[in-house]
Automatic annotation (TrEMBL):
It comes from the Bacteria. Keywords: Signal. This is Carbohydrate ABC transporter substrate-binding protein. PROSITE patterns: PROKAR_LIPOPROTEIN, TAT. Pfam families: SBP_bac_1 (PF01547). It comes from Streptomyces endocoffeicus. Residues 1-20 form the signal peptide.
C-alpha cells in the first residue's frame, strides 16, 4: 500500500497547505522563513520549548551548546501537534529549518521517501554515533530500503498504571491480569464512584489502547499485516475486537470515553478520579508524587486463548528523532556539532534525570526522581510487548483511525461495526 504523499503529491500540496496555527513567539511567516543562510546559525524545528515534557532540559541544553560554541547561533522554532504540516509548508517554499525534532508517525513516514528529509545513515556512521544507538531503535528508524530516516533520540515505555490505593478502597485485592478480573474490578470501582480505566477515546491514546487490545489474539506478524493493510478480518483480529467490545460494554472504560482526549485521561488519573490508565513515559512522569507512591505499573489483562503469555504493554523507540533537511546538508558541519553534543552521555543523562524521558540511546542513568518511569523500565520479561502500529499505518489512514477509535469506544457499537469503522479508515489509503 503506497503512501499518498508521493513526490508529485508533496509538491502539488503546496497550494492547498495552509500555514498551521503556531505557538506564541513564532509567526507563520517565521516558520516559512526558518532557513537561515548564515552557516553559523543552526535552525532547529521542535515540539520542545514550551510545556512538552523535556522542554526545560532541552532549552538548557541549547544554552550549554551555545556557550561551548560561542561562534554558533541556534534559532529554535516551536510547534505542537501541527509541526509536521508547518514543516511541509516551509519545505515546499524551500525555506525549511536545518534540523527537525519530531516522531515517526503519520505525515513524517513519507518524508525521506519524497526528499523532504535526507537519509542519515552515512552521517551516523561517519560521525561514529551508531554505537550510541540501541539496536532496536536503529531498526525502527530504518525503512524498507535500508535508509535511516533520522537520528533516534526519545523512546517510551507504555505500560498500564494502576492506582493501588483506589483498588484497595474498592475491595480489589490484586492487580487484574485477566479480562474477567478486570471486569470484576471495574464493577467494584463503579460502586465506589471511581472510574475504572480512563482513556482518550477521541485521540491517539485511545487508538493505541484499542490496537493493543485487538492484538490480544494476534502474533506480531499478524498484527503487522492488519495495521499495514487495514484487513481486520482474520480470526485473531475479530477475536480481539470482540474482546474489546466485551470489556467496553461491561463498563471497563470511563463514562463517555469516546469523547475524552489525552489531557482528560491524565487529569482523571492524576486527580484520582480514575484508577487505571494506559500511560506512556511522559504521562508517568507527570503523576504527582502523592499518587505515584501508591501506583503500580504492569500490563493489559489478557483473555483466555490469547496469543501472548503475559499481560501486554507497548514500547517504541520512535518518539523523537533528529531529522536533517536538504537545507541542513548545506550546514552539515554545524549540524554535526549539534548532534554530537545532543548524543553526549552527559546530555542524554540530563533528559533521563531531569525530565524522566526514556531514550533510544545507550545510558546507565536511571530516572530516580520519576519512580514510575523507572518501574516501567524494570518490567522486562514480566510483560509481553504488543506491536505499536504507528510505522505500519499508511499516513492517509492515521487520522481516520482516530475517528474509528471514537466510534469503537461508543458503548453499544457492535464488533462488526467496530471492524467496519477500522477498515473504512484505510479506504483513502
Amino acid at each position: 500500500m503506497h503512501s499518498p504523499l508521493t513526490r508529485r503529491g508533496f509538491l502539488a500540496a503546496g497550494s492547498g497547505l495552509a500555514a498551521a496555527t503556531v505557538l506564541p513567539g513564532l509567526s507563520a511567516c517565521s516558520a516559512l522563513t526558518g532557513a537561515d543562510s548564515d552557516p553559523d546559525t543552526l535552525v532547529v524545528h521542535s515540539q520542545l520549548g514550551t510545556t512538552a515534557p523535556g522542554s526545560p532540559t532541552y532549552l538548557a541544553a541549547l544554552d550549554r551548546f551555545r556557550k561551548e560554541n560561542p561562534g554558533l547561533k541556534v534559532k529554535n522554532l516551536i510547534n505542537g501537534d501541527d509541526l509536521a504540516q508547518v514543516y511541509e509548508t516551509s519545505r515546499l517554499a524551500r525555506k525549511e529549518p536545518d534540523v527537525v525534532m519530531v516522531n515517526l508517525y503519520d505525515k513524517t513516514l513519507a518524508w525521506t521517501d519524497v526528499g523532504a528529509t535526507v537519509d542519515v545513515k552515512g552521517y551516523l556512521d561517519d560521525w561514529g554515533l551508531r554505537q550510541r544507538v540501541l539496536p532496536r531503535a536503529l531498526a525502527e528508524w530504518t525503512d524498507a530500503k535500508g535508509r535511516v530516516r533520522a537520528f533516534p533520540y526519545f523512546a517510551t515505555n507504555w505500560p498500564i498504571a494502576y492506582n493501588r490505593a483506589l483498588l484497595d478502597r474498592a475491595g480489589v485485592d490484586a492487580i487484574p491480569t485477566t479480562g474477567d478480573e478486570l471486569i470484576a474490578a471495574a464493577r467494584k470501582l463503579r460502586v465506589k464512584k471511581i472510574a475504572p480505566v480512563t482513556v482518550g477515546g477521541n485521540d491517539w491514546t485511545g487508538q493505541k489502547l484499542l490496537a493493543q487490545i485487538i492484538q490480544t489474539f494476534l502474533t506480531e506478524d499478524a498484527a503487522r499485516h492488519a495495521y499495514s493493510t487495514g484487513d481486520f478480518g482474520s480470526r485473531g483480529a475479530r477475536e480481539g475486537i470482540e474482546y474489546f467490545v466485551t470489556l467496553r460494554d461491561a463498563g471497563v472504560f470511563a463514562d463517555k470515553a469516546q469523547g475524552l482526549i489525552s489531557d482528560s485521561m491524565v487529569t482523571q488519573f492524576n486527580t484520582e478520579a480514575a484508577a487505571i490508565e494506559s500511560a506512556m513515559s511522559s504521562a508517568l512522569a507527570k503523576v504527582p508524587p502523592k499518587v505515584a507512591r501508591h501506583t503500580e505499573v504492569g500490563g493489559w489483562p489478557l483473555a483466555d486463548g490469547a496469543a501472548h503469555d503475559k499481560p501486554t504493554i507497548l514500547r517504541t523507540y520512535t518518539l523523537i528523532g533528529f531529522w536533517i533537511s536538504p537545507n541542513g546538508t548545506k550546514k552539515i558541519d554545524t549540524v554535526e556539532k549539534f548532534l554530537r553534543f545532543m548524543y553526549r552521555p552527559d546530555t542524554v543523562a540530563r533528559f533521563i534525570k531531569e525530565s524522566g524521558r526514556d531514550m533510544a540511546l545507550r545510558s546507565d542513568t536511571v530516572s530516580t526522581d520519576f519512580p514510575l518511569v523507572a518501574a516501567a523500565q524494570r518490567l522486562g520479561s514480566t510483560v509481553s510487548q504488543a506491536l505499536l502500529p504507528d510505522v505500519f499505518v499508511p499516513p492517509a489512514a492515521a487520522q481516520p483511525l482516530i475517528t474509528a477509535t471514537s466510534t469503537s469506544f461508543t458503548r453499544g457499537t457492535s464488533a462488526a461495526k467496530v471492524r467496519a469503522a477500522l477498515e473504512t479508515a484505510y479506504r483513502s489509503a
